[in-house]
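Readers of this paper often ask what the protein records in our data store actually look like. Such a record has a labelled line for the sequence and another for the backbone structure tokens. Nothing more is needed to write down the fold, since each code stands for a local backbone conformation. The remainder of this section carries one protein's record, kept here as part of the documentation.
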Amino acid sequence: MFVSAKGGETAIENSIRLLAQRRRGDLSVEQVSSSQIVEQLGLAVDRVMAEAALWEPITAAHAIQQARGDLVEAVFLLRAWRTTLPRQAFSKALATENMRLERRISATFKDIPGGQVLGPTFDYTHRLLEEIEEDPSPPSPAEQLHVEDLMRNVPTVARLLEDVDLMQRETPENSGHVPFDITRESIRFPADRDQRLQLLGRGDEGFLLSLAYSVQRGFGGNHPFVGELRVGWVMIEVELEELDLVISLGEVRITECQTVHQFISTSDQPPQFTRGYGLVVGHNERKAIAMAIVDRALRSKELGESIQFPAQDEEFVLAHLDNVQASGFVSHLKLPHHVDFQSELHLLRCLRAAHSAKTYSTSEGTEL
């Protein structure tokens, strides 16, 4: 329990003023703009938007600037700002199969329809510090048009496995099903997959990465293969029921991953691959893969597997993956706990006094 304490207002005001000075830095150095952060630190912006569950690049960049580059604090700022916005409509489900792809790879098959498209990635760099090119040469207009024409409506690897009955099919929800909305309802256990995926989608990347690593190290009951990883742009559409009209609001970049996992079979069904699914706002491959691995681990119960490891325990995973909540719970330890500590200190002194008295009585009894 916490109570407000008066006093220290001047110190707090001075701390905030000092923070503003440190945020700005040396006045002789030109201040970075939000547009520069969006264009040159795009992966940081994408991570903040993903974990804040809001596509708003300029505002996310502003949050990063205000947070002095602390991405968890930036997520906190952007998420708080999002809560002030009205909800004016609900978009239709994303048609990711129609994604305008800029990167698409599969680790399960060398040759796939549409081909492997490496796109922009660190995967093949030497990880050596080098001079940053001021003006790298862009692709020619002809090359750009060729890539864009090629990378639309490309079938997924998972769909190809489904067509030959080697991959467990996803059961579509009934048309009347309303997805759980974690922004308006508290999480409930046991959690359905729609709730789990929403929470995983805005969970902390580091937490998910650690869990996914534990699964790969044997603490998850299954081993993943990256069936397909896609990065590209998908259209956001809203249906106006009163006009019987669907309008497009624009495109957002997303990262989608489907992982292929080991088999399941029943008395009525031969062995099939199972899958994990990850979808993240922006370009965030590491998190999308980790999300897919953890999603599959959390499906253990429905697939008849024993729950043995942390990554399979939905209450452990879903209750601890939110970085804003985790940051607040850890950071609150910096706030005054003077009264709490004094009570602990008093209790400790009483226990020590009782221990000393008992020891003295025992010693006297021994001498007698």
The mean pLDDT is 87. The chain is about 40% helix and 15% strand.
